[in-house]
Amino acid sequence: MFHLAILVSDGFDEQAVKASQSYFKKQGYSYELVSPKKSEFARSWSYKDWGASYAIDRHIHEADPTAYDALIMPGGALSIDNLRTDSDVQTFVQSFVCNNKLIGTLCHGVWPLLDIGYIRGKHITSVRTIKVDIENAGGIWEDEPVVVYGNLISSRTSDDMPDFHRILHEILQSRLQVLRPNSS
To answer: Of 28, 44, 73, 75, which residue has the fewest beta carbons closer than 10 angstroms?
Structure first.
């Protein structure tokens, strides 16, 4: 049904990715872990220490943004800090912006959007520790579990993931109805 890109590097929030993979699988969505890492695996972070390593499904230079229906950028400050300044990642993310594709961010996952200048004037939420970053980039930070603004869905932390997943699913379904109004 829907094909999603989950953008990761070493230090991604393991809970966010595991929960997303489980939810997407139950919904019948396909997904790929996309990363600029040269290796075959990305290591997760489990709040206090390194977590499991996850196989990278597609390297960023091989990933075609037009093949995905949505981009998910989970938290994990280490991962997102590595991703945000990578020129291949910026180009990949910018493609989703330019094509008005759905972009979901969790926790620190919004940082790449700040670096490409996409946040100015938009309502968004994130982990509280980067509120000032968002405001300095011209964004309007809200302390809500999920904020939807245009094609952007943002969430504060992994604790808000049930709401994040539900809203993401509803928006994808509504876009499907626009594309195929007679489908059930």
So the answer is: 28
